[in-house]
């Protein structure tokens, strides 16, 4: 890695040669004052341009974002340039290498921060404009990585760091990092696979195998952030999404069909039940008119006639709210029409005392030869044995 060299007074351009002839401290003072005034001018100009762009009609949003993010790093860059030029005038560049490297590092970091912020604002402008770019989140992450890597290489060059010993052991270090970061690598590859498979994008409603359902609000390098209906953000690793079943409820349309079971008692007019359910769909503001709702008689159950209402709701996350509206309307309509909603019933019978239970378990007693019961014969024999003799 080549070392970046710093200039001296002799390296000044011809237009600035007069700085070497004047008193160094006066020149430094003039440079600092001019740098400050230029920085204030840049800041004032940026504020004025932003105000004018706000008043202008049809001003591009991305241009406004560039102006908002540009004036701060430009302001700081002028200050850093003034300090660096002052060191050149004082011929202190070689003796203050640490300070010079620090100024250059600040310059690099400021513009790296500007590049990252500009990429983020670009994605925000795309989202606000309603234009869909499926690879926009991944491009944002790749842009961030590229900017950080470029800044790192520049800082290595500025500070003249020797990375040859690290490159010599890169093979062993790569194996160690591969085992240590296998989950991270799996998440990264999983995220790239999700993009190429077009499984989902920002704004889609997804349903996972474990029952988690929510709106995708960010697709990162390592994980995907999902906003649930409870207003809770959940970070799901990309590797998990790539290996499990993910239901995208926003494709091909955001409208989704719900199935609502309804039970009525036997003897109920099924045409009246169907009409009540259709009226409930028409009364709900969340149920779509097209495709039209349908009512199917699905089963003759043990205790009721089972119906199934099939209707499309405007958004997957509004399904429970639409179900609530339909159930409330249906319950009131059933009550007015005196339609019974049955429930399972079981009848349990039992006897009063133990003797009756014994007789009931033994069943009917057969008759004897003389018309009496066998139970009487058995009782007489038992009595004779107790007296100790034969009866004649």
The ordered H/E elements are HHHHHHHHEEEEHEEHEEHHH
Helix content: 40-55%
Number of domains: 3
By secondary-structure content and strand pairing, the structural class works out as alpha+beta
Number of helical runs? 13
* Average of per-residue pLDDT values: 78
Report the β-strand fraction as a percent range: 5-15%
Strand order of the largest sheet: 4-3-2-1-5
Distance between the terminal alpha carbons, to the nearest Å?
A: 134 Å
Radius of gyration, in Å, reads 42 Å
- What shape does the CA trace take? elongated
**DSSP, total strands:** 8
Main sheet overview: 5 strands, antiparallel
- Outline the low-pLDDT stretches: 358-362, 368-392
Can you characterise this structure?
This protein has 392 residues and is an alpha+beta fold. The chain folds into three domains: 9-161, no CATH class; 182-248, SH3 type barrels (Roll), CATH 2.30.30; 256-337, Alpha-Beta Plaits (2-Layer Sandwich). Helix content is 55%, strand content 13%. It contains 13 helices and eight strands. The chain has helices at 18-21, 24-55, 61-89, 97-129, 136-158, 164-168, 170-180, 182-197, 238-243, 270-283, 319-337, 354-362, 374-387; strands at residues 205-208, 213-219, 223-228, 233-237, 246-248, 256-264, 294-300, 305-313. The strands form two sheets. It has a five-stranded antiparallel beta sheet with strand order 4-3-2-1-5. Strands 6-8-7 form a three-stranded antiparallel beta sheet. A hairpin with a 4-residue loop joins strand 3 (223-228) and strand 4. Helix 2 runs antiparallel to helix 3 (61-89), helix 3 packs antiparallel against helix 4 (97-129) and helix 10 packs across helix 11 (319-337). The longest helix is centred in the first third of the chain and has 33 residues, at 97-129. The chain is elongated, with a radius of gyration of 42 Å. The termini are far apart. The relative contact order is 0.06. Mean pLDDT is 78; it is low at 358-362 and 368-392.
